[in-house]
Design goal:
Immunoglobulin-like; binds copper (II) ion; globular; 3 domains; 4 helices; mainly beta
């Protein structure tokens, strides 16, 4: 079926096309169940905004997003004022179908230039939302319409790709993020309920590691610490719980939209069957007590709801739950206070989701050595790739059609979630273990380890390769892949 075979205008009282109507109904059903606040934002402006799905270059946008002041009361009396999409955070859930031509008009009503990156999608550089790739900055008061073919299917997301640097109000420190679900052409999903949960940290400030006495090495410069955190728009214990019924099979889609922090999540007495990482089905499904997400990563996991009660789905760290990182999962008819129990020791690692056979040998290997120039007390660390910081990092030149292996050698004491724009990659080796079949767009490279990923140069145009920790990316940790 050609995209947008049917046109409609809701203002004229016509019906939306069947695909979108199904998505709307799904969102509405979940809303009624009260389980996913995020979905209340699933359709910006309601039906009235889901307009005119007509083919042709001048057709109206499928979605409109407005960058501007946003606020939300994450707990009674605790208001976060930030920049967000459509006045709130997270931004609306956008649902599109794989292969669909999508137009998203973004108006910048903020005082700063900004732009939106469509994370995990194989789209043209100009539409990808990274100025280093040639995407336009959207100046205050202007509107830019992103137009692309939605692929591949899976849990994708969108966020500001501005540089924040020392300004902790910008980019991923702000509320400028949201989920983008690309529905597969044929949906193999078998679940009763879908719950979307985006992690975010709020109220950032710079602190000296020497004062925190934990975490990264003592020669580090300033790091970012947070006073509050949310899953979607509320802190733990506030807002509606995720409501479920005994016997249900729930698909959780998690996103870590934190600017800088890894998170580990658990739901006591329940286990997660991990079906996709970064939106891509895993070769080996695993059933685990805990999930780990680096900044930028997504996990789709099925949970059998077979332990009635009220439970805390949240960070395994007590201090993170205390600042809000969690949500209550409530079975119908359950009474009492929500319970937390310490999970068993985590078994999280990437190779467990991959095949243990070697990936097909690539045509070329590219070595990328990652080092830190410590900032020391009160200073900022700087990051180098092969000895140079952005914008001086050497361009990685590729030829269309060839397959490349990127070997990240992390010579620093920090973890780095490496993200490749506009392409997916296959994990080929993780800390000495040969792997294949696991396809991602972010890989968290452990300290003092080497991780190798393979990608096919199949989407010509400049493509960013960077650490997804905002603070690292902004202080030099970025490279550009260029096609010959
Ligand atoms: Cu990093």
């Amino acid at each position: 079926m050609p995209p947008f075979a049917s046109c409609f205008r809701s203002a004229a009282g016509a019906q939306p096309d069947p695909l979108r109507r199904a998505a709307l109904e799904a969102a509405g059903a979940t809303l009624l169940a009260g389980s996913v606040r995020l979905l209340s934002a699933g359709v910006p402006g309601g039906l009235g905004a889901v307009l005119a799905a007509c083919a042709g270059p001048s057709r109206a946008p499928d979605f409109r997003l407005r960058i501007g002041a946003a606020s939300g009361e994450i707990a009674p009396g605790r208001e976060i004022r930030t920049t967000g999409f459509d006045g709130r955070f997270p931004g609306p859930v956008l649902r599109v179908r794989e292969g669909e031509e999508v137009r998203i008009a973004v108006t910048n009503a903020s005082a700063q230039p900004d732009l939106v990156h469509w994370h995990g999608l194989a789209i043209p550089s100009r539409m990808d939302g990274a100025m280093e790739e040639g995407s336009p900055m959207i100046m205050p008061g202007e509107t830019f319409t992103y137009a692309f073919t939605a692929r591949p299917a899976g849990t994708r997301w969108y966020h500001s790709h501005a540089m924040a640097g020392r300004d902790l109000t910008r980019a991923l420190y702000s509320g400028l993020y949201g989920m983008l679900i690309v529905e597969p052409k044929s949906d193999p999903g078998r679940y009763d309920r879908e719950v979307l949960l985006a992690v975010h940290h709020w109220e950032p400030s710079f602190v000296s590691m020497q004062d925190l006495r934990r975490g990264p090495p003592p020669d580090n410069g300033l790091e970012v610490a947070y006073r509050s955190a949310t899953l979607n728009d509320r802190a733990l214990g506030h807002g509606d719980p995720v409501r479920v019924r005994a016997g249900e099979r729930v698909l959780f889609r998690f996103l870590n939209a934190s600017a800088t922090d890894d998170v580990m999540l658990a739901l006591p007495r329940h286990r997660f069957e991990v079906v996709a990482l970064d939106g891509n089905p895993v070769p080996v499904r695993r059933v685990l007590d805990t999930l780990m997400l680096a900044p930028g990563e997504r996990i789709d996991a099925l949970v059998e709801m077979n332990m009635p009660g009220k439970w805390i789905l949240g960070s395994v760290k007590a201090d993170e739950r205390a600042i809000g990182l969690g949500v209550v999962v409530e079975y119908a008819g359950a009474a009492g206070s929500p319970r937390w129990e310490e999970p068993a020791a985590p078994e999280w690692d990437y190779p467990g989701f991959a095949l243990r056979t070697a990936a097909t040998a690539p045509e070329e290997r590219i070595e990328l050595r990652i080092e830190k120039i410590p900032g020391g007390r009160g200073g900022f660390n700087r990051w180098t790739v092969n000895g140079k910081s952005w914008p001086d990092t050497e361009r990685i030149r590729v030829k269309a059609g060839r397959r490349y292996r990127l070997a990240f050698r992390n010579d620093s004491g920090d973890m780095h979630p490496m993200h490749l724009h506009r392409h997916s990659f296959e994990l080929a080796r993780f800390a000495g273990q040969a792997t294949s079949g696991l396809v991602k767009d972010v890989v968290n490279v452990p300290r003092r380890q080497t991780v190798e990923v393979d990608f096919t140069a199949d989407n010509p145009g400049p493509s960013l390769l960077h650490c997804h920790m905002q603070e690292h990316q902004d202080f030099g940790f970025m490279s550009l892949i260029e096609y010959a």
